[in-house]
Q: What sequence folds into this?
């Protein structure tokens, strides 16, 4: 039975269990009315539905994890050793051949009879597995609903039990998010340690040349590569710095104007227009930067004669930073506008009553009180700028140049991560593992930014609350 059909049946059975549990609670109330029930009939029905759905969903989850392992082991016993030896001792390759044959993607002509027998056995086991999981899940759902239905009594604290289930569900969701984060960090960390076993940490963090191209075969030239990541860090900071120089003043001033000076009609027009910028795909920004902004900056630099003192490239950090700054303006303006509007009106009225001008109220009262939220918006925009890839690829190029010249082509950490993970290089090579080391550094930088933002929030929140 398909998984979608199975989940649909579980949902229908849970709905029927809800109706049955609610009806039993009403029947037990009888002539005495709902006052004799500890909880509303809705909670009795909900509790019955939970007892129907949760055991069956737990069976589905456990079954989906174990059935593949068990079936693989049972089918693997039928695979002839000669076929495994012919595949270089790799059982996984033989099992892929068995699965392709069972699915009908290949024919049995010329294949080992043992592989054909294993494919036939796989088809049988999968058929039995589908019906077995359907029967077990349906029995679990019916048994759980019936058990709860029989336990319904007027004195049963159904509401408390339903709330406990929701509390545990919320805890499970929070734990899942934490465990996912831990899993991501550990996976990146372990692969980074494998990279640092081949490339020294000092060379990676302080090296001035980035050329990760390594040979696929040992007889090829240039198999070592250079993994000095300083040019990547410098390019990332340069582009992100240009973007923040554009976005922070523009976004903050826009938020102050919309919150303190704009009329309701003007605010109703400008605020949605600013927020539209956040909905434009980054590839569109990249096209705009590559086709319009970058050539304009190059021509402007040539017209001003800047090519006599510095390199003027058709792909530049300035083009990527300018367009990226426009892209992250809504992150700062929207969040800053919200926190400025959240400042209590009493603070403004008190300052005005003491003789402050409107501009002094904004500078000396509103902005300091809203500073934690403003810093949070700026940190969010900074993280967005550091993690942007498409605009940098299309407007700044892929050249790992160590330069402070905004008119020169540079690259960033995220762009190199994408570049390193594509192509024909094997996963065990230093070139591929370098992507995880770059990801670890990016994670550390983002963590430091978040810690700085939390420090600012705590400091000023204690002062103004």
A:
């Amino acid at each position: 039975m398909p998984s979608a059909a199975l989940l649909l049946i579980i949902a229908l059975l849970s709905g029927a269990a809800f109706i049955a549990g609610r009806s039993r609670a009403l029947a037990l109330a009888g002539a005495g009315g709902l006052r004799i029930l500890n909880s509303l009939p809705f909670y009795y029905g909900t509790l019955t539905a939970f007892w129907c759905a949760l055991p069956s969903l737990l069976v589905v989850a456990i079954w989906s994890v174990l059935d593949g392992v068990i079936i693989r082991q049972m089918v693997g016993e039928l695979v002839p050793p000669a076929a495994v030896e012919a595949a270089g001792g790799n059982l996984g390759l033989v099992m892929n051949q068995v699965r392709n044959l069972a699915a009908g993607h290949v024919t049995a002509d010329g294949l080992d009879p043992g592989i054909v027998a294993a494919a036939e056995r796989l088809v049988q086991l999968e058929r039995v597995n589908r019906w077995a999981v359907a029967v077990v899940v349906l029995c679990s759902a019916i048994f759980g609903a019936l058990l709860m239905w029989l336990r319904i009594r007027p004195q049963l604290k159904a509401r408390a039990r339903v709330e406990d289930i929701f509390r545990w569900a919320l805890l499970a969701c929070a734990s899942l998010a934490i465990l996912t984060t831990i899993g991501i960090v550990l996976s990146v960390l372990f692969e980074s340690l494998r990279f640092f076993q081949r490339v020294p940490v000092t060379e990676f963090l302080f090296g001035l040349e980035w050329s990760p191209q390594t040979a696929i075969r040992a007889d090829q030239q240039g198999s070592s590569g250079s993994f000095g990541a300083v040019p990547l860090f410098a390019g990332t900071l340069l582009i992100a710095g240009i973007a923040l120089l554009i976005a922070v003043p523009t976004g903050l001033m826009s938020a102050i104007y919309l919150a303190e000076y704009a009329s309701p009609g003007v605010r109703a027009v400008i605020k949605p227009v600013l927020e539209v910028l956040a909905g434009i795909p980054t590839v569109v920004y990249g096209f705009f930067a590559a086709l319009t902004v970058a050539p304009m900056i190059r021509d402007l630099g040539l017209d001003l004669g800047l090519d006599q003192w510095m390199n003027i490239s058709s792909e530049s950090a300035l083009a990527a930073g300018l367009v990226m700054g426009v892209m992250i303006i809504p992150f700062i303006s929207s969040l800053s506008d919200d926190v400025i509007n959240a400042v209590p009106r009493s603070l403004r009225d008190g300052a005005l009553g003491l003789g402050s001008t409107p501009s002094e109220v904004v500078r000396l009262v509103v902005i300091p009180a809203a500073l934690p939220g403003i810093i949070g918006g700026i940190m969010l925009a900074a993280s967005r700028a550091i993690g942007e890839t498409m605009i940098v690829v299309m407007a700044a190029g892929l050249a790992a140049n160590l330069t402070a010249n905004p008119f020169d082509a540079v690259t960033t950490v995220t762009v190199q991560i994408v570049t390193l993970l594509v192509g024909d290089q094997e996963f065990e090579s230093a070139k591929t593992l370098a992507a995880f080391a770059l990801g670890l550094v990016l994670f550390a930088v983002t963590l430091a930014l978040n810690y700085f933002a939390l420090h600012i929030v705590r400091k000023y929140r204690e002062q103004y609350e």
